[in-house]
Design goal:
The protein is an all-beta fold and 127 residues long. Helices cover 0% and strands 50% of the residues. The chain has no helices and eleven strands. Strands 2, 4, 5, 6, 9, 10 and 11 form a seven-stranded mixed β-sheet that branches. A four-stranded antiparallel β-sheet has the order 1-3-8-7, with no helix packed on it. Strand 7 and strand 8 form a beta hairpin. The termini are far apart.
């Protein structure tokens, strides 16, 4: 089993920058991709981006590209989501997810491809 713990959420002001962290522990696969998702009240889960094991590729959807960035530090088993210019529409619970890979360069862009999920961290953006 893989355990994922997110941190870094909180209440921030419009226009600020926030970095979320997600640390993996337990029986992590040799290679694993990590992704970020969020879910606002009354809305479906939204994919925010992913990074592969080798850190050669990241993918973020157009909706957040340019404002959000993903990185990872494998010495710490941690993936980061850097979010800038936050606004009220970014208010949501943010989740990280992980999935084992057969190849280190693979990215996974759908939520159904991730078997491991964190508990989530709340981000509230206030004006």
């Amino acid at each position: 089993q893989v355990q994922l713990v997110e941190s870094g959420g909180g209440t921030v002001q419009n226009g600020t920058t926030l970095r979320l962290s997600c640390t993996a522990s337990g029986q992590t696969p040799t290679y694993y991709a990590m992704g970020w998702f969020r879910q606002a009240p009354g809305k479906e889960r939204e994919f925010l981006g992913t990074i592969n094991w080798s850190r050669t590729s990241t993918y973020l959807p157009q909706s957040v590209r340019g404002r959000f960035a993903i990185s990872r530090d494998d010495t710490k088993n941690t993936v980061y989501l850097q979010m800038s210019n936050l606004n009220s529409k970014d208010t949501a619970v943010y989740y990280c997810a992980a999935t084992g890979l057969a190849q280190p360069d693979t990215i996974v862009v759908v939520g159904s491809g991730y078997p491991y999920w964190g508990q989530g961290t709340q981000v509230t953006v206030s004006s």
